[in-house]
Design brief:
Elements: H1 10-28, H2 39-58, H3 66-95, H4 98-112, H5 116-123, H6 140-160, H7 165-186, H8 191-196, H9 202-211, H10 220-224, H11 227-246, H12 253-270, H13 276-279, H14 283-290, H15 292-310, H16 316-342, H17 349-376, H18 386-393, E1 404-405, E2 416-419, E3 427-431, H19 433-448, E4 452-457, E5 467-471, H20 484-493, E6 498-502, H21 505-510, E7 523-527, H22 536-556, E8 560-564, H23 574-578, H24 586-591, H25 598-619, E9 622-624, H26 627-630, E10 641-642, E11 645-646, H27 656-679
Amino acid sequence: MTEPTLSYRPELDGLRAVAVLGVFAFHLLPNVITGGYLGVDVFFVLSGFLITSLIMKSAPGKSFSFFDFYIRRARRLLPALIAAIILTLLAAGIIFSPIHYEAAGQSGIYASLGVANIHFWLSTGYFDLEGSVKPFIHYWSLGVEEQFYLVWPALLIFGAAFFGRAGKFGLLLILSLISFAAMWLVQVKHYDAAFYLMPFRVWEFGAGACLVFLNIKRDEDASAANPIGAVLTFAGLVVIMAGFWLGARFDNLAAILLLPVAGAVMIIMGGANFVSRPALSNPGVVFFGKISYSLYLYHWPVIIFARYIFGADLSPVIMICVVLVSLVLAYLSYRFIETPFRKTWTESAGKDRMAVPAALAPIVLGVVFASSHIWNQEGWAWRLSPELRKVVEATREVPNPNCERRAFDPSMRALCVFGDRRENIDIAIIGDSHSNALAAGLTNAMKREHVTGVAMSRGGRVPLMNTHLHVTGGRASVGYSGNSNEDFENIFASKPDFIILHARWALYWETVGPSHEHFVQPRYLGPIDQDFEYTVEATQAQFESGLIDTVRAIKARGITPIIVGPVPNPGVDPLQCLSRPYLRSVDKAMENCHGFTQEQSRARNAPVIAVLKRVSQDEGAIFFDPMPIFCKPGAPTCNRMINGRLIYRDDDHLSLYGGRQLGGRIVSLIQKERAVAGQD
């Protein structure tokens, strides 16, 4: 049986081009094309329309075959996908550090099996890409599509037995509305689930599918001069471009997705007309549409590898090279993989439809096995020279191996206890993930001095009382600090002598990350349980106010507050620099390490350090500045290694060894303060 085909519509290839170029632009210039990621949603609408058209063309004559449908989907998608995974893993094996290669191997398994969206839902967020290397994260959308293909044919074919054409349209419309409503509700507390999981995306496919039942007549000659179609096409392009421009300004995922979905629907309805022909059906745009699938597969790994080698801020020349390499790979994939696998291979239809699956099955299993081996064998660390391996392996130390839950006091089970672990608590630490790195570094010095501490560290928490943190930009609001007052009360209950406040202060003061952290979303501060303006001025006012409130509350309980300033941001992941297999020595690796100069690191932190110092002096807190420990006068950059060991575990967090360099000084400071107090 030959599966039915649809008449070719070049404007739909043009729509594919718009979608993939939007995604490409977002990944390459995320601070400029902030909503380009919405191109994926255009693909979803197109898939819903085209797949439903194929299925319904077969259904009336009872000629639809589930087996042939899935074979055709496999031939269309899998060869290029598996080839891209293989090439990406090979390139990553040359370029990536063992830690990053290990993660790539793990995600490669899920990408090969069509469930990358579920993997990244469980492990990370699409907009949490700062300082990370995930060459398969864009495969999440392919996972959604493949899962959609599993359920959609059955829904349409079996639904045909109970509903007429109008009934099927009504059924799809109801399912789409339910899916949209579910996304709207779920995104509030489970944004990543709403983003990644297929049931919450059904409405986008459904929007395209519903068009199949509207009986839109398309006579090519008439539609070319049809002003209504031209208006629809023009409006659709404007709406999609508006989404690309405004995407980062919306917290509501379902709301912003209405723009690309509505735009794609209007362009599909518009058909061929005097707007679509020059804008979407010209040969240049159609070319990008034809290679759009392969371009989608290859562009992101190429961008990642370029940033890995040349630094996060790519020069215009490197960007042009990235674009050219991506286009060449996409064309070669389209010409020599996609196109041949769509054609018949043998004279026997029965043999031919099984040829591709039979060839692909062992290859897919081989990719899964290789990815599993990379994951299981810690990213094939043997690729590094012994000198580099020694440095890199030291960073695998557990960040806080001595941290335990305090079992003997039920009121403090939420706190992490470390150091000497005596009954009485000497110090407490509260803050974001940087405070966790500090707590790890304090442990050994605290044991030597018989000091016990508790910590309450949470990624993204700004340790300020009466302060709410709002993360915005292309994702839902996340109030990490809404319960800070409650957290402080838990800390107060432990009755420490000192409370240490430590965080990545500059991030909360500036509201945005450094220039190289393209995907760090803006962070705004405001008073708890009150509306506030999302501006830098309002944030900085609340920062200072919250800091004063916090210091005063600590002192009111007879506890000494210690404010530990920010550690310098290297502007690059030194581990990434040191663990590239093609660089064989530590010295050579460090020569090729980009990032911030010492002047840039100091300039980034200077404004917030001034505020921390002033409040400490005015309110009677102790201020400790880590910058002199890591930034030696006259050096071009702040230290990235001390005594041949890395002091960072990524592009902003201290490693266990780096934390010890800072922790020992702080314990000495505490003991000195105690001695002075004893003399008084």
